[in-house]
Recover the amino acids of this structure.
């Protein structure tokens, strides 16, 4: 099914007699593949409002992300939360949609400074499991009274309703960018260096570590963005903070963009065999957790708070990690362990109650929004 309007989508949901698998662009099928008819949102597309002066954009959920980025780029603006492109990692095709980005709360390296996708979400329209059109939020940032359905829908992966429209806050592109590169640090030293940099007054917009960089050696990346004079000053200060011949500053915008696309899209894990796990943890715990897991490949983002790990196929990463302050999601691969981490009993009960309220018939199969 590919409805061409919100009204058609609502009618399709109301008439559904079996589970539906909601699909945007088909690029991030994490946890999907369950039984049920496919309900595509790509027929509900287009930017309906863009006010560069107000830093506001409203678009139908099926609008391709590339189209939105092109519209923003023409006005020197961008989505500050830097959404990841999952296609290389998952081996998928198609075009990512803005509804899929919001439904999965896709947020890239800049999250350490700017925040997540949900932090830029101003309003939503969606169709719940009864076929009712629900609207929440608006087009300005403000305090919310009552239920904040805007934040609830971000990351819900289509289990509560089908997004039809999203309103987003956008930001200007920076005048300049630079990246401080530190060669040769072992994982623990790299996490300590990233913590030191993020705790400095130099306002980083990215902190990542590749144990195996493009040239085969460890590489730590610290990004700064903003006005040209400020970027030059902060990059030099960051470099001086660590000193030594292993520290250098990359100031070419193209080279910096390429390096951070590599981090954002987890390029070192594209192709090849094995499962890929996404681990959220305390940065200081990350090196020890990686040592427990013994992965074939690893990438640290968010200063170590996000770890991407490629393991042998079928490995239960959660069992190897044991108890830790965080959680692990299997992003790629198949196995008997659940894709998403189990919730504590009180949280699981709350999740069931919320889902029963928005999808009382159980029409939306969990985790199938690609």
């Amino acid at each position: 099914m590919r409805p061409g309007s919100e009204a058609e989508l609502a009618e399709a949901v109301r008439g559904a007699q079996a589970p539906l698998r909601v699909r945007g662009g088909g690029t991030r099928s994490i946890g999907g593949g369950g039984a049920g008819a496919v309900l595509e949102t790509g027929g509900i597309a287009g930017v309906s409002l863009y006010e560069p002066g107000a830093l506001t954009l409203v678009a139908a959920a099926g609008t391709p992300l590339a189209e939105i980025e092109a519209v923003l780029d023409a006005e020197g603006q961008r989505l500050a939360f830097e959404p990841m492109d999952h296609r290389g990692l998952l081996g998928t095709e198609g075009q990512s949609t803005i509804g899929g980005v919001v439904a999965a709360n896709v947020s890239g390296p800049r999250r350490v400074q700017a925040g997540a996708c949900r932090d830029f979400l101003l309003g939503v329209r969606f169709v719940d499991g009864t076929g009712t059109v629900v609207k929440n939020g608006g087009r300005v940032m403000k305090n919310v009274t009552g239920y904040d359905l805007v934040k609830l829908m971000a990351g819900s992966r289509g289990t509560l309703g089908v997004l039809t429209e999203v309103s987003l806050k956008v930001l200007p592109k920076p005048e300049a960018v630079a990246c401080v590169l530190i060669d040769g640090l072992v994982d623990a030293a790299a996490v300590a260096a990233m913590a030191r940099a993020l705790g400095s007054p130099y306002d980083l917009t990215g902190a990542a570590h590749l144990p195996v960089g493009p040239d085969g050696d460890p590489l730590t990346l610290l990004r700064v963005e903003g006005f040209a004079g400020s970027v030059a000053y902060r990059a030099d200060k960051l470099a001086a903070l660590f000193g030594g011949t292993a520290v250098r500053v990359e100031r070419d915008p193209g080279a910096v963009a390429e390096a951070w696309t590599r981090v954002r899209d987890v390029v070192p894990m594209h192709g090849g065999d094995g499962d890929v796990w996404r681990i959220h943890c305390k940065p200081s715990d990350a090196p020890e957790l990686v040592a427990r897991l013994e992965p074939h490949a690893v990438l640290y983002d968010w200063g170590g708070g996000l770890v991407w790990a490629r393991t042998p196929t079928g490995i239960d990463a959660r069992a190897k990690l044991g108890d830790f302050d965080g959680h692990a999601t299997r992003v790629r691969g198949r196995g008997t362990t659940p894709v998403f981490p189990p919730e504590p009993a009180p949280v699981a009960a709350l999740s069931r109650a919320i889902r029963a309220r928005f999808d009382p018939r159980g029409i939306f199969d969990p985790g199938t929004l690609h």
Observations:
- The longest helix spans residues 228-242.
- The chain has eleven helices and 17 strands.
- The chain has three domains: 6-172+350-358, 176-264, 267-332.
